[in-house]
Amino acid sequence: MRLPTFSILLLLACVTAVSACASPYSATGPDDRAAIARNGFSADDVGYVLFDPDSGAVLAERQPAKPFAPASVAKLPAMAAALAVLGPDHRFETTLHITGRLGDGVLDGDLILKGGGDPSLSSEGLTELLGDLGALGVTRVTGRFLYDTSALPEMPEIDAGQPWTAGYNTGVGALSLNFNRFRFDWARPAAAGQPVRVSAWSVSDTGRVPLDSVTVQLGAGAGAAFTPLIAMDGEPANGEPEGERWRFAPQPGMAASLWLPVTRPGLAAAHVFRRLAAEAGIALPAPAPGAVPPTATLAALHRSEPLEVLARQVLRYSNNLSAELIGLAAARRLDPAVRTLPESAAVLTAPAMLAAPRTDWTGLRLLNHSGLSAGSRITPAQTMALIQGAGPAVLALLPGEDEGKVLPPGVRAKSGTLAYAKALAGTLTTANGRTLGFAFFVTDEPQRAAMDRTMDRRIAEIPPEARAWLARARKLQADLLELWIAGL
Q: How confident is the model at residue 25, as a pLDDT?
């Protein structure tokens, strides 16, 4: 049996790996014990490595070989790999194609909207495509309006371990629009006997468009405000309308507007395109899935910003969908057979593993490119190897902030946050002007496991005790950065 490319690469990496890590419970460098104890952690909960990025010399470490949850730190190696595979000038393309004959403003044929995995595609991009279509004189289509998502596998969510209503856990697909989120608005009846008013909108920087692929069924009762009514595989049951369906039960004190994930991105983008086309004076039939035939003619093309720009945005704003789309595109360039996010993450990680054979890669398990998973694992030493492999050009894209809060001067890093897991990796400048690399992790495995065992996907909020834990983790992170900057 022929193994997929990513499996062969992983096997080669495992064969060639040679441990270069210290004992998993060692600690060297400035004394960190007071900072760890002061913030209420056990030394076993913390792992880090501080190193010279040029020579690879380790200057301080604690548990460098222990696997931790990377959270969004996983976006750093994903963007580095994508830049290496696709190139910093790579642009994602969204296209319009036509078949048949055009005359007197009528296209006697099909119109096909094809997605190219652009993570930044917005309503404005679709409007540009419609402008080019209008310039051809098209006002009506007598054939079909198709949407083609074949460039990437489409999936309804990034991670099945997240709340249903989490706007950061969206569907993923080649035709993704406005970050695959929609805004749900509702208002209580103005008078007795009148219904609750609800609406769903696809929102961009310049406006909003009704999202016809979403329907909301009103309900009642305590507990969850939103429950999805279609299975997360995206397939409607017999007799149910195509698209996404939610049951909404207003709860006391809930906001009148909130963000929800789009789980069928291709269909949603096609419906928005149809709405925008109507505003532009172009009548289209209802969208249906399809593929661009070989005989079709290219009618319009929209290109994204260069990948270097998109990668910088991912590392700063940490958008999960963008990381997954960029990672998928790069992985499928290496292995077109990739169909899942774990496969994709394995494909992008394997070349880095082969490039650093003296690193012990035991325990590495990345389930996607965004880090949105409680099951992913990476060690501080492995993160160090990936940072070194990224190189100065990629590290220069790192922001000087953590979740919108400014990091200490001279620190540029990618942060990661999950309930009971905090991480930060990048570079820092010491008090004497020396530039060092670092990877820091802290986690509480038992608390996270207990939370996952009792998880209710209807509840979006993390427990108060998890928020308190993260506050302590951020303080420990700040204390260790201060210690490293001052002491080395």
A: 41
Residue 9: phi and psi, rounded to 5, are -65, -40
pLDDT at 239 over 90: no
Residues 6 or more apart whose CB falls under 8 angstroms from that of 196 comprise 186, 187, 188, 189, 218, 248, 250
Q: What is the pLDDT of residues 274-302, one digit of tens each?
A: 999 999 999 999 999 999 999 999 999 99
SS3 sequence, the chain? CCCCHHHHHHHHHHHHCCCCCCCCCCEECCCCHHHHHHCCCCHHHEEEEEECCCCCCEEEEECCCCCECCHHHHHHHHHHHHHHHHCCCCCCEEEEEECCEEECCEEECCEEEECCCCCCCCHHHHHHHHHHHHHCCCCEECCCEEEECCCCCCECCCCCCCCCCCCCCCCECCCCCHHHEEEEEEECCCCCCCCCEEEEEEEECCEEEECCCEEEEECCCCCCCEEECCCCCCCCCCCCCCCEEEEECCCCCCCCEEEEECCCHHHHHHHHHHHHHHHCCCECCCEEECCCCCCCEEEEEEECCCHHHHHHHHHHHCCHHHHHHHHHHHHHHHCCCCCCHHHHHHHHHHHHHHHCCCCCCCCCECCCCCCCCCCCEECHHHHHHHHHHHCHHHHCCCCCEECCEECCCCCEEEEEEECCEEEEEEEEECCCCCEEEEEEEEECHHHHHHHHHCCCCCCCCCCHHHHHHHHHHHHHHHHHHHHHHHHC
Among 70, 66, 60, 22, smallest CA distance to 47 is for 66
Query: What residues are paired with 429 via a beta bridge?
Result: 435
Tokens of 358: 């003296």
And the tokens for 202?
């696809």
